[in-house]
Design brief:
Layout (H helix, E strand, L loop, with lengths): L2 E6 L6 H10 L4 E6 L7 H5 L4 E6 L9 E9 L1 E6 L10 E3 H5 L3 E2 L10 H10 L4 E5 H6 L5 E7 L4 E8 L6 H10 L10 H38 L13
Parallel strand pairs: 1-2, 1-3, 6-9, 7-8
Antiparallel strand pairs: 3-10, 4-10, 5-8, 5-9
Helix pairs in contact: 1-6
């Protein structure tokens, strides 16, 4: 059975792409999981994942060992407890104002200590504010936590990455094509290209056979014509 492994970071929502892939390839053993700890790109180096959805800020993590295609941008927000000064801003908070508040660092809240849910409890208490991606704020939303956009904040990019040295990339290319919005009938999909190439080879083979058959028939006709006896020559008329 063919297999494909995909990992993604917290806040990334690859569900629609996963569903489309499963619809087209129901027989494939597809493994998908959220990776909350460590460097997700390391999963490519170790072979644990065929592709990963990675979040990055600034330059692309693309290098000689992996390909990276940017997909969309995430806006930065600030999370604060109810009745915090942040709540009095309607939609967004100036960056300098956010920086003036005590900051919470998610790195201090690994899964072993409860992860982001515990960090959000600290935010809800009003002790600190959290700067994070809008997608993460939505995923761990609480009624006692308010969220506002940060003016001139630092947006992050979400992209899909896979090893540049992947040996069998057919299924992977199919998945990446789906992520990039290609339909099942798109000529850029690997499966469609393979079908087109196969049809082209079959058509060329048929043409070659037809041509060879026509040549053989013509050759046979030439041989048959050369074996026919020549007609008798007319006798010359005698002159009186």
């Amino acid at each position: 059975m063919q297999k494909l492994s995909i990992a993604y970071q917290t806040g990334v929502t690859p569900g629609k792409w996963i569903d489309r892939f499963v619809e087209r390839y129901p027989a494939v053993d597809l493994k998908v999981w959220r990776e909350d700890e460590g460097q997700i790109l390391d999963l490519l180096a170790t072979g644990e994942a065929d592709a990963v959805f990675v979040r990055y800020r600034g330059e692309s993590p693309k290098d000689a060992t992996r390909h990276v295609i940017p997909l969309y941008e995430e806006l930065e927000v600030v999370c604060a407890g109810k009745d915090h000064d942040v709540e009095y801003f309607e939609e967004s908070v100036p960056l300098e104002t956010v920086e003036s508040f005590p900051q919470l660092d998610l790195a201090d809240y690994p899964l072993s200590t409860g992860g982001i849910p515990v960090a959000m409890e600290v935010v809800a208490s009003g002790a600190q504010v959290l700067r994070t991606q809008q997608s993460i704020a939505r995923l761990f939303a609480r009624k006692d936590v308010v969220v506002r956009f940060i003016e001139d904040g630092s947006p992050t990019q979400v992209g899909i990455a896979w090893p540049s040295a992947a040996e069998d990339t057919t299924l992977l290319e199919e998945f990446i094509g789906i992520v990039r919005g290609r339909t099942a009938s798109s000529s850029r999909q690997t499966s469609v290209r393979n079908q087109e190439q196969k049809a082209k080879r079959i058509n060329e083979q048929k043409k070659a056979k037809a041509k060879a058959k026509a040549q053989a028939k013509a050759k046979q006709q030439d041989k048959s014509s050369s074996k026919k006896p020549q007609g008798a020559k007319a006798k010359p008329r005698k002159h009186r």
